[in-house]
Write a structure and sequence with these properties.
alpha/beta, 11-stranded mixed β-sheet, 5-stranded parallel β-sheet, 21 helices
């Protein structure tokens, strides 16, 4: 009996000890795991911060080794390090591996890339042998900064190749793939030596690892774009996505206003909390009710319409509100349009000539630049605060198409095009603009000066600012990703007009970037040519914008020099601009019989002492108000230009000057502030141009 009692008590003791045994988490990696560069790795490293987050029921081990490579033929193989043996002996129930960054060294990846996958799989197997049944998570690598000394000589490209290899390894070994790259990619200020995250960045990784281990991603979450009164793009499949706790089933349902179910779809949140459903195309009209639930929480959006959704973006002339327009007094009281909806993303702080305080600077570093927004129905109150160009564009579409129109505003005064391009695109195709952006000449000196004034109180050399390349994409465009839109209208260029060559490159990258963001290589992108203003570079810049239509497909340009102001960079007559953008959309996107543009130069013939010019959209060429054509100039091989006489001959223009016997080149509207008056039968103005 005594022996039985002893055995029973021993069994109870074993069970109690087992119940109290902690779950072990082994964090395997290089110097980033170790916490290199922080004030105190023992408290600041991501494993140390993870320990605090996980609590007493877990034991987190840091087995990071500075300089370690995954490759066994690398210059410092992890599996030959003492930390590897310690990790094996730890017998982790959960193993988190973050390796590969040091394998981008030219001593490693170029020579031994073919060994990376088998070496990584061998590492994984070693932990499975040490602790059968252990849970293994392998991480895509954290970002490298563009200032890394080998960024363009190989590291950038090898880093991307290794990321793909890690994805393959997760499939091969059937382990969980997690992502250390995305949570930090928009925060280069948190990777101040281009490799190692600072304590705050490591804290982001620690919280992310906790979410991945526990499966708790905060429950059902969807894009900020979803609110009452929203407009969903009709006529195409609708991707609705978000986060939920791992394994939760999310159901999305669309109802008519009377409660009749239109369609429903479900998805299960994956191992990193992501879910996505694809709704069939929705018929234009409404109102609808959109409902989402994960079984525990339900969100319902009411008064939802299906129609045409356009993004209105750029700088101050797009941000220019209807209440500032020359016709505001007449237009605003008439702005009762229940089928037009606005999503107005306003900046928290304007980039005025002021120094921002520390709280603003901290918010900027956290990408908290835009005020919260919600969809609103067009009314005199909401329309008065909305961009005038966007309002007039949307109103013309609504009148012509007779479907609901959704307009998203994201326009920031003074911003250069580079601020709206995503980081990956610039890293791959224009990395120089990312380096020392406050001191390089790709950025307009005015913009650099204003940014310096705004952040003057910051002691952080990595301080963010809205004019920084990528910033507005990361803070304002990325959150819109995959919210279906039909296209973009764009009014920007004033802050890039100092260097039209750079802008030509940036504009192409911008359009490419956004088309990739919305996964639509043919997404319409209609833009405004700069107006007239007494700034010397604007003639060349306007002509470079004209040429962009030949470089970038599915674009169109609205001419605006005839409504410019010689002294004001913000001309107040916006109705013609918005309507000219709408003409492009109606003609090209919606295939309506609408003249999209004024005359656009196409080609020329030299005929003795005169030149004949051909144009697209040339029906009814004439001088505005019946006046003789003006602002034409002609030059011979010496490229000395003289005022020219121009007259309409059929659908062409004949140009000559008694001072030029052997004409070679014609230019038109070649004054920063021009009174050029060539129009077509729709009274639409011709663009500034110089013949090729």
């Amino acid at each position: 009996m005594k022996k039985i009692t002893t055995l029973f008590l021993g069994l109870i003791l074993c069970l109690l000890l087992q119940a109290q045994e902690k779950t072990r988490i082994a964090c395997v990696g290089n110097s980033i795991t170790f916490g290199y560069g922080t004030a105190n790795p023992e408290t600041d490293s991501y494993p140390s911060q993870l320990q605090k987050l996980m609590g007493e029921k877990y034991e987190v081990g840091n087995f990071g080794r500075s300089g370690a490579t995954l490759l066994n033929h690398g210059h410092r193989p992890y599996m030959q390090m003492e930390e590897f043996q310690q990790a094996i002996a730890f017998k982790g129930d959960i193993v988190v591996i973050h390796l590969g960054v040091n394998d981008t060294d030219p001593r490693d990846w170029p020579n031994y890339r073919d060994e990376f996958i088998p070496d990584y799989m061998a590492l994984i197997d070693s932990f499975r042998v040490a602790r059968p049944g252990c849970r293994i998570l392998i991480a895509k690598m954290s970002p490298l900064g563009v200032h890394h000394w080998r960024f363009e000589s190989g590291t950038r490209d090898w880093h991307a190749e290794i990321q793909l290899a890690i994805e393959q390894i997760a499939k091969n070994s059937q382990v969980e793939l997690i992502d250390f790259h995305t949570p930090l990619y928009f925060y280069p200020n948190l990777i101040q030596d281009n490799i190692h995250p600072v304590k705050e960045g490591l804290g982001i990784l620690a919280n992310y690892v906790k979410q991945c281990i526990t499966g708790d991603f905060g429950g059902l979450q969807v894009s900020q774009m979803y609110t009452d009164h929203m407009v969903i793009q009709h006529g195409q499949k609708v991707d609705i996505h978000g986060l939920a706790n791992v394994g939760d089933k999310v159901t999305v349902s669309l109802y008519k206003e009377n409660g009749k179910l239109v369609q429903t779809a479900s998805a299960t949140a994956d191992n990193v909390g992501k879910w996505s459903v694809l709704l069939d195309p929705i018929l234009a009209g409404g109102p609808y009710r959109l409902q989402m639930t994960d079984g525990k929480r339900k969100v319902v959006y009411r008064d939802v319409l299906a129609g045409e959704v356009w993004l209105c973006s750029g700088q101050s002339n797009m941000a220019f509100m209807l209440k500032q327009d020359v016709a505001a007094e007449k237009e605003i009281p008439l702005a009762h349009h229940s089928q037009i909806r606005f999503y107005d993303m306003k900046a928290r702080w304007l980039t005025n000539d002021v120094e921002w305080d520390e709280s603003v600077l901290d918010s900027l570093n956290r990408l908290q630049y835009y005020l919260p927004a919600a969809w609103e129905t067009c009314s005199p109150e909401s329309a008065s605060e909305f961009p005038a160009v966007g309002y007039y564009f949307g109103k013309m579409l609504a009148d012509s198409l007779n479907v609901p129109i959704g307009l998203i505003n994201n326009a920031i005064g003074g911003a250069g095009a580079e601020a709206y391009v995503d980081r990956k695109t610039l890293e791959d195709e224009f990395p120089a603009i990312l380096r020392n952006w406050t001191g390089n000449d790709f950025i307009q000196d005015w913009a650099r000066g204003r940014a310096a004034k705004n952040v003057a109180k910051s002691s952080n050399k990595f301080q963010r600012h809205p004019y920084e390349p990528c910033y507005l994409y990361e803070s304002g465009i990325a959150p819109l990703q995959n919210y279906p839109i039909k296209g973009v209208i764009w009014y920007q260029g004033e802050s890039n007009a100092h260097n039209w060559d750079t802008h030509t490159k940036l504009f192409q990258l911008l359009v490419k970037s956004w088309r990739r963001t919305w996964n639509n290589p043919e997404m319409p992108f209609y833009y405004v040519q700069l107006s007239s203003l007494n700034r010397p570079s604007w003639t060349w810049f306007r002509d470079s914008q004209r040429r962009l239509m030949d470089l970038v497909p599915y674009t169109g340009m609205a001419v605006s020099h005839d409504v410019g102001d010689s002294l004001d960079v913000h001309p107040r007559m916006k109705q013609p601009v918005g309507q000219r953008l709408a003409r492009w959309a109606l003609n090209k996107t919606y295939q309506k019989n609408v003249m999209p543009s004024g005359p656009l130069y196409k080609s020329c013939d030299i005929r003795g002492n005169y030149m004949m010019l051909k144009f697209d959209y040339a029906n009814g060429l004439h001088g505005r108000n019946g006046e003789a054509l003006n602002c034409f100039e002609i030059a011979g091989p010496d490229q000395l230009f003289y005022p020219a006489t121009a007259e309409v001959v059929g659908d062409q223009i004949k140009v000559w000057s008694d001072k030029v016997k052997n004409p070679k080149t014609v230019r038109y509207g070649w004054q920063p502030f021009t009174r050029a008056n060539l129009v077509n039968e729709e009274e639409l103005p011709a663009s500034t141009f110089i013949t090729e």
